[in-house]
């Protein structure tokens, strides 16, 4: 088993009486994309700052590429880390190309890479214009280009699709998939859940500094025990008269069956045995539903 690229072991940080992040343990492997989800104040940005070494843990340990990110020894690893903060801001008077060339040189790269990255994020046409003339979406693209300098081994992206239109969002996720296939690890922090799930390997859900759940979407679905929704077409009242199926019907959804994951195949086979069946719609719980489940459970004070 290879050493994780990022490890947090009972890592937490407190400001006076406030626990910004309670004791969190997590590992991120090479070539893995982790989705970090939670409302404002959940501790997402705090966790990213710990991994960047900008702040130090009050307790527990943080390791990135085998060393503490806040130590003097970690300086040479920083060129292998890319970061996009939630609110990007640049020198307004400089052009996009000047801004990116400046950041590229800070990381030991040249102007050519800056030009290539501007092309990759789709703002070549505006690279000679001052940043103050850029729209929010263009600034976000410039921020992404800055984070991608040097094909980082670790990429931390805080709300990366804010201000991006649907096409730019699609292009952004293509770049994330490409970086992953090249062996980069990504921590993707987002409020916007639709569209994220097919690009992440695991999800981590935080609330008020506490880790509520972590795992693949399949594992989280299993933990949450959310049912599969099956909607048959063409059977009309037949389902209600079938002793093997009627128990899965609910008053709120008269023609829809809510089926536990482990019963899914049995129910589908039973439905397929009915001659009148025209079509089937099968929906498993999506990331948004899984997220809401853990959040509501936490808010109602249940034990994990």
From TrEMBL:
<dbReference type="InterPro" id="IPR003439">
    <property type="entry name" value="ABC_transporter-like_ATP-bd"/>
</dbReference>
<keyword id="KW-0813">Transport</keyword>
<dbReference type="InterPro" id="IPR027417">
    <property type="entry name" value="P-loop_NTPase"/>
</dbReference>
<keyword id="KW-0067">ATP-binding</keyword>
<dbReference type="InterPro" id="IPR003593">
    <property type="entry name" value="AAA+_ATPase"/>
</dbReference>
<protein>
    <submittedName>
        <fullName>Copper ABC transporter, ATP-binding protein</fullName>
    </submittedName>
</protein>
<dbReference type="InterPro" id="IPR017871">
    <property type="entry name" value="ABC_transporter-like_CS"/>
</dbReference>
<dbReference type="Pfam" id="PF00005">
    <property type="entry name" value="ABC_tran"/>
</dbReference>
<keyword id="KW-0547">Nucleotide-binding</keyword>
<feature type="domain" description="ABC transporter">
    <location>
        <begin position="6"/>
        <end position="233"/>
    </location>
</feature>
<dbReference type="GO" id="GO:0005524">
    <property type="term" value="F:ATP binding"/>
</dbReference>
<dbReference type="GO" id="GO:0016887">
    <property type="term" value="F:ATP hydrolysis activity"/>
</dbReference>
<dbReference type="InterPro" id="IPR051782">
    <property type="entry name" value="ABC_Transporter_VariousFunc"/>
</dbReference>
């Amino acid at each position: 088993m290879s050493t994780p690229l990022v490890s947090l072991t009972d890592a937490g940080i407190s400001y006076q009486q406030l626990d910004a992040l309670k004791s969190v343990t997590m590992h991120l492997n090479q070539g893995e994309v982790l989705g970090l989800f939670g409302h404002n104040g959940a501790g997402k940005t705090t966790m990213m700052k710990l991994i960047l070494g900008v702040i130090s843990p009050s307790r527990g340990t943080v390791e990135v590429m085998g060393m503490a990110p806040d130590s003097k020894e970690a300086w040479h690893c920083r060129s292998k880390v890319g970061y996009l903060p939630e609110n990007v801001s640049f020198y307004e008077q400089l052009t996009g190309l000047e801004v990116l060339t400046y950041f590229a040189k800070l990381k030991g790269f040249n102007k050519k890479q800056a030009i290539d990255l501007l092309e990759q994020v789709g703002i070549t046409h505006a690279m000679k214009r001052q940043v103050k003339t850029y729209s929010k979406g263009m600034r976000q693209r410039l921020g992404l280009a800055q984070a991608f300098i040097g094909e980082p081994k670790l990429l931390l992206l805080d709300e990366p699709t804010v201000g991006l239109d649907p096409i730019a969002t699609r292009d952004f996720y293509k770049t994330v998939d490409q970086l992953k296939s090249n062996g980069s690890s990504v921590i993707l922090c987002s409020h916007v859940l639709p569209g994220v799930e097919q690009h992440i390997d695991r999800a981590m859900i935080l609330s008020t500094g506490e880790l509520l759940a972590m795992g693949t979407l399949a594992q989280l679905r299993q933990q949450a025990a959310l049912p599969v929704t099956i909607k048959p077409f063409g059977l009309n009242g037949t389902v209600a008269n079938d002793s093997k199926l009627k128990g899965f019907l609910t008053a709120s959804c008269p023609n829809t069956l809510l089926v536990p994951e482990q019963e899914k195949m049995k129910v589908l086979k039973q439905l397929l045995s009915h001659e009148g069946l025209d079509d089937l719609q099968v929906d498993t719980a999506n990331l948004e539903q899984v997220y809401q489940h853990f959040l509501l459970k936490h808010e109602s004070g249940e034990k994990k």
